[in-house]
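User: Could you check the structure of this?
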Amino acid sequence: MPPSVTVSIVNYNHLRHLPECLRAIRAQTLKPAILVTDNASIDGSAAWLQEHGDDLELILNHENRGFAAAHNEAFQRSTSDFVLALNCDVVLAPDFLEALASAMTGAPQAGSACGTLYLGSPGASDRLDSTGLFPDRFRRFHDRDHGRPASGFSRPAGPIFGPSGSAALYRRSMLEDVAPDGEYFDEDFFAYYEDADLAWRSRRLGWESIYVPEARGWHVHDDLSRARSGRRDAGATFRQLLLIRNRHLCLLKNDSSREALRDLPWIGGYDLALEVYLLLRKPGLAFRWPREVMRLLPPMQRKRANLLERSPAAVRLSDWRLP
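Assistant: Sure, the predicted structure tokens are below.
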């Protein structure tokens, strides 16, 4: 019997992307269950999903609970062997799920996997988006190969630090092992860095992650398309706050004291340069993100203590830094 897969999509005002995204899921050679969580969209998404979603389960939230909490809600409802966290602005090749699930079935210690994501739409993509998530010395996480020309690109299958949350396949048993309370993605993060945090936690508990090159998808990157078209984005400052705040939360929750101390000149230097930039350009944000980190410090300390209790051995980030 082939493995069972559930595709989890979190929607927040992405009606323009949903038809193509769902069309690609329905065309998969390995047929999945489909769960769509709508976070109180105001662009008509919920009504469209109700009209065109006979083959999917729709969760309607009355407020925007965030990317992490909405995915957790869907993950908890599903019972499949694997769960794919998928962005609305990603289009999958027909054999994407089959390729990833097959590779993970043959690698029982792999708790997660990703394929090759290209920037843009199918047929209009000449650059890469991601072949896996990797950290740098500043404790930022990057999509490997992002922006590289797609022509002539070749990279063999192999281990990665973790998958990008835009199209990440997770093993059910890994999710339950890492988060027996059902908080697979950390809901305090709301959005951004939740995929890096989950990758860090799962690796600390002995799970691996793999890159499967033949699983292909295309990531439109809705935030980039808005910027290129000159459309004003009222949520840009909020996203920047989440990115800065959650980088620090991820570090406080997962990093080892020894590794953080060794890289302190790079971490501190980056933070100093960032704060100077924010004070000059966005002073409100410069004062807001430290308050946000302090507000969430107690839950991060509790979660860190729980993780240390389960696995005292730290992950050597230096083994995973990109060259």
